[in-house]
Each structure stands twice: as structure tokens, then as C-alpha cells.
Design a protein that fits this description.
heterodimer, A: alpha+beta, Beta-Lactamase, five-stranded antiparallel sheet, 3 helices, globular, B: alpha+beta, six-stranded antiparallel sheet, about 25% strand
């Protein structure tokens, strides 16, 4: 993978339990850049992450808590982590189920800060 | 939702439910309507079908001329609504799908579930080979019958 986001995404995928990372256009839910292991559908993760984020943002506003800063979705087959990267993008990590995601979470937040 | 052939309905219904698209139109590449959801006037339906077919034909040709095609889809995004237009191959024919959507969903979600619908249509298609060509003499009768089925009149 090459491009301006390659180094950040690949650093994320080196974290324990992380199977892929994507940069997603927040409003359209489209992939901007991705580093995914085989078998992961980047378009589907991008659509899911953006859709989830937009609903969280609306719910946060409705509850008077403001915009979300971090999201973690745990499912049977794995976990998805998302943080905003600037005003228009989301940085998303896809992880194996039941993995320890503390370091991955820290790396995700750090990488998003660099991209913002 | 209305469809000329019953096997089209389940995949289309799932697409509508999962993508939250507002209007959907499936046509042949000649602009003949196969199924629709959200159109209330026949004249709008026929115009959208003709325009969709024309856009797909012109972008295909543009892609050929510039050596950058063929393209999988055309997307337009406005401030409040968007449009996804794509041609896809079934065992018996090439069809076109047009979906409009609002801010309650996104282009990414529509594209993901559109691809899923195409896969389901391929699996559900009862055809194995291209059907016979439609004769000019039959066209008007088939068009009238199609509109009647699509609008229930």
C-alpha cells in the first residue's frame, strides 16, 4: 500500500489483534485508504462505520452530550473501533474478537491526531 | 414497490429495507422498466428510465474513448440527497439500477447493499440465456403492459 496515509494505517495493523485499518469519508461512508487483511470487505466496514458514527452523533446531540470522540462496536466476529480524523474523516480499526485492544485504541487515537 | 417479474421483488425489498434508499428503478439497458419503488407518475418513471439508460450508455462510451472505462457506477451527491446509478450483468441481460437516497443513509451504505442485491438477483434469476429479441411490433404492447403492472392500473 502507498499514499499519504499508508504509514499510519500500517502502523495500526501491526497492533496485536488488529486485522485492518481504514480511513473513511464520514458523510458518504466511502473508503479513502485501507490496509486490510484478506477476507475483510473494506466497503462494508466503511459504510458501517460512517452509518454508526452519524447515528451516534445525532444521539449524542439529542442527549446533550455533544459529538462522540470514540466508538467501539463489539460483535460476534470481531470488534470495530472508530475515531474522528479531522472534520471529514474517520479512522477505523477492525480487530479480532476478544482481543486486548488497549494498545490498539491508543495507537488509533494517536494516528487520528496526526491525520487531523 | 412494483416489479414485472416476481423473482425480482425479494432482493429489491431487502435492498430498500437495508439501504434506506428513497426511490429505486431497475431497467434494461434499453430503458425498459423492470421494477420500481417510489415513483408515483408514469411520465417521471419513463423519463428516469430513459435518462438512466442514456447516462450509462454515454459514460460507457466516454470510458471507451478515454481508455478509462468501463465504469462500475455513477454517483451524484447533493447537499440533501444523492443518486447511485450502476449497470450490472444478469445471466440473461444487462440491467441498470438507479437509487436515490437522503441524509438518513449514505452512498457507502447504498453501494454495499446495491452490490448485495445484484448478487441476489443473479442467484434468483430463472433465466440461463438471453431471451428472444423484442420485435418492434410487440414493443408498444409490452410497454403498455409493463406500465399497467408497475402502477397497478
Amino acid at each position: 500500500m502507498t499514499g499519504p496515509f499508508a504509514a499510519g494505517l500500517e502502523r495500526l495493523t501491526r497492533q496485536a489483534g488488529v486485522r485492518g485499518a481504514l480511513l473513511v469519508e464520514r458523510e458518504d461512508g466511502l473508503v479513502v485508504a485501507e490496509a486490510l487483511m484478506e477476507g475483510l470487505d473494506g466497503a462494508a466496514f466503511a459504510a458501517l462505520a460512517a452509518s454508526l458514527w452519524s447515528r451516534l452523533a445525532r444521539a449524542g446531540e439529542a442527549a446533550g452530550r455533544g459529538a462522540p470522540a470514540f466508538a467501539q462496536l463489539e460483535a460476534e466476529q470481531g470488534t470495530m473501533l472508530a475515531v474522528p480524523a479531522g472534520a471529514e474523516l474517520l479512522l477505523v480499526a477492525v480487530a479480532e474478537p476478544d482481543s486486548n485492544l488497549g494498545l490498539a485504541r491508543l495507537e488509533l487515537i494517536r494516528a487520528a491526531g496526526e491525520l487531523a | 414497490m412494483r416489479a414485472l417479474e416476481p423473482w425480482v421483488e425479494p432482493p429489491l425489498a431487502r435492498f430498500l429495507a437495508e439501504s434506506a434508499a428513497r426511490m429505486v428503478l431497475l431497467t434494461t439497458t434499453a430503458g425498459q422498466v423492470v421494477a420500481q419503488h417510489g415513483f408515483t407518475r408514469a411520465v417521471d418513471l419513463m423519463s428516469a428510465a430513459a435518462l438512466g439508460a442514456a447516462i450509462v450508455a454515454s459514460t460507457d462510451e466516454l470510458g471507451r474513448l478515454t481508455g478509462t472505462g468501463p465504469y462500475r457506477a455513477v454517483a451524484h451527491q447533493g447537499p440533501g440527497a444523492g443518486l447511485h446509478l450502476a449497470a450490472f450483468d444478469l445471466p440473461h441481460a444487462r440491467w441498470i439500477g438507479l437509487a436515490t437516497f437522503g441524509r438518513e443513509t449514505s452512498l457507502g451504505v447504498v453501494q454495499v447493499f446495491f452490490e448485495r442485491m445484484v448478487g441476489e438477483l443473479r442467484a434468483a434469476s430463472p433465466w440461463e440465456a438471453p431471451p428472444r429479441a423484442v420485435l418492434a411490433a410487440d414493443f408498444e404492447r409490452e410497454l403498455g403492459g409493463s406500465l399497467q403492472a408497475l402502477f397497478g392500473r
